[in-house]
Amino acid sequence: MQKIPFIFSNKLLYRIARHFAFWFFAIFGEGLIGVGIRPLFNVEISPGSFMENILEPVLYLPGQLLMVYLLLYFLIPRYILKTKYRQAILWGAALTIVSAFIAAFSYTLLIDVFRAHFLSHFEFRENGKMVSLVTENKGAIDYGQLPFEFLFGFRAVLNVAGFAAAIKLMKYWYEKEYLNSILQKEKLDAELQSLKAQLHPHFLFNTLNNIYSITENTSPVASDILLKLSALLRYILYECDQPLVKLLKECKLIEDYIALEKIRYKEIDLTINLPADTDNHSIAPLLLLPLVENCFKHGTSKMLEQPWININIDIKDDTLLVKLINGKPPGNEVILKEGIGLSNARKRLNLLYPGEHDLTVISEEDVFIVQLKLNLTAASGQAG
Questions:
Q1: For the chain, what is the domain count?
Q2: Which domain holds residue 91?
Q3: Is the pLDDT confidence value at 313 over 90?
Q4: Strands in the chain per DSSP E
Q5: CB count in 10 Å sphere of residue 285
Q6: Is 338 a member of any domain?
Q7: What is the predicted pLDDT for the residue at 334?
Q8: Are residues 161 and 285 in the same domain?
Q9: pTM greater than 0.70 (yes/no)
Q10: Per the domain annotation, does 228 fall within a domain?
Q11: 356: phi > 0 → left, psi -120 to 50 → alpha, else beta; which?
């Protein structure tokens, strides 16, 4: 799409150019075609036919403007693209009628003035007499003609609205297909990378089991560490290939991970609050672990004295609330730059929970805060 910026770019210059091009063809295109094909039928192109076919349609423009822009920026995005077809039909009918009346009224109001200014110097010979193209200026609106003019206004509005809707919907369909193709490609690439990486975790998992059997009797502490690490790897290898997993399992994974980190950081001040009732909730696998891991990797590991972490995870009305706070070394004024873990978590949230989450990262002088608000019901459709 980057190769056709005139059509797909959202830059202001391209958008203005697109609108000018659309209105040029919408207003003058049909008239130009009509005048252009007249010689094919041996019909003379007279000044009157030129004005009537090409310039007079401009008088319907107020109604057409109203219809087109309400259609493009109100009716289509709010109702048609959201498959609310009943409301779309009702709104479309109402907008068409109102726009047709406005188009008819503007034409009736301006036609005499238009002809007086643009056609006053055009004359042609009829039956030996010179006849002016200008009709007599009535000086007032003939409201009796409005019903007839309404039909012409209705036609003018529908022509332009249909042209605009066709372009908008085709563009939307193409962009959707383009994004789907990108997502499919990224999914295939991710699956390929996952297959390539499976050899090393399996090898490590089997090796850990062998070491555990050796240390079970000789070193109970080391055996317990290996058991927790083995459980963590088993979960990643065998249970994370599904779209959704039980939130209870994700919380257990976090507990096992924290238990392993506590062995490394014996002096850490750690506060953990996990939800008690998680049986009825599911979540995309391995979504929370990178956030917790970030606390240890960029917080605790950098603090030489009194490292601390506060982990609070709660559920309220099917909404997961996560707040992670960790200390930072004193005097650390480095500008926040998201690491791979946070960056990947943000990308996964955008793909799996679009519009259903709010991830906030705050870096202050001595505190690093990550807050996540996630609608757990939004991913229920992925469970199949």
A1: 2
A2: 5-192
A3: yes
A4: 123-126, 129-132, 245-246, 269-273, 282-283, 308-316, 319-327, 357-363, 367-375
A5: 21
A6: yes
A7: 45
A8: no
A9: no
A10: no
A11: alpha
